[in-house]
Amino acid sequence: MPSVPGPLIRVRMGTPVRVHLRNPLADTLVVRGFSERAAGLDSLVVLPNDTASVTFVPRNPGTYQY
After folding, report:
1. Which residue in 1, 20, 42, 59 has the most C-beta neighbors within 10 A?
2. E-only strand ranges, 4-46
């Protein structure tokens, strides 16, 4: 189930990050922040009872909300 805040993910810069999400809900799930692009340009849409994956490489230090 979705939670706020979400899980903490820590990685070293340059480490490829692969995220696999499963949506057990009856509604579409939209997750943002799994990239270094501006918010709103990096949405990951997971349909009901489906899975989705995303891969990105963090290149700048910082804290990012997803």
Report:
1. 42
2. 17-23, 29-31, 44-46
